[in-house]
Specification:
The protein has about 325 residues and is an alpha/beta fold. Helices cover about 35% and strands about 10% of the residues. The protein has 9 helices and 8 strands. Strands 1-2-3-4-5-6-7-8 form an 8-stranded parallel β-barrel, surrounded by 6 helices. Helix 2 runs parallel beside helix 9, helix 6 packs across helix 7 and helix 7 runs parallel beside helix 8. The relative contact order is 0.19.
Amino acid sequence: MTDSPRHPGEPALSTLGLPSPAADPADASPHAFPGGGRWRTEIPSCEGPEALAVVLKESSRLDVPIHRISQGSGVWMLTDAEIIEMVEATAERDIELCLFTGPRGTWDTGASVRTDSGGAGLRARGHNAVAGCVEDAVRATELGVKCLLVADEGVLWTLHRARVAGIIPADTTLKVSALIGPVNPAAYAVFERLGADSLNVPSDLTLDHLTEIRRVSAAPMDMYIEAPDDLGGYVRMYEVAELIRRGAPLYLKFGLSKTPGIYPYGHHLRELTLATAKERVRRGRLALDLLARHGADGSMAPLGSRLPGELRRFDTAE
């Protein structure tokens, strides 16, 4: 990112006597990804090899750089052959592939998650649900997957311990889902210590909230620049440069509002899934074009980079 990217509409507004307030240097994140760069990109909701092929083709056509591709339905919704095909296709482009682990509360037998209160939300209910997540993690990593998405603190801690113990590879990265994303700096720091390498925060956090988080943690942050409707439907395109300035190291996630849910994916949702996969890449192009117009596109992390750097952890010793 340049030293002084311009604000949206700044030249015209200054001419009209409505200049943007100067950015406070104290608000800026002091952190970056290892190896340099303050932002990476992610295309979410890529539910299988066919959708992945669409994303890769469209990213080449529109020249959209991709660091990570993530899936939301879960490891258990893919065959071994499908996982291997996705691993090989992403490895060929040096893109990190992230698959969701195991059972979640919304698909379980418990009714509390369907109440107005939301109950226990997306967390893994009981030992068997945790076991399913671990089963998914072991299976996925044995097939070459290097990033796992989790939606439960206990699962996160268990998989981090499994990583330390060598049950899954030490370079496996663990990503916290937007479905349980932390909303304050204390919670963010706890997730980091539980083993999170990348944390998806809700897209309605304010710029000041991001600055508060960055004062206590350097763990990479994920944020939907455009959020799905079930996560609020927020569109924050014009804030991208400032989100990077405040939240770096930051994954820019190109979601899509005004679309039905597609989890868990099956062939009955094929046309919708492929169409939305293609449009997510286009949304990425729009966001990157905005960054370029505002002179804030110069600090992208190198393609192929995936590790989070040195992070703080709780002691795993019993």
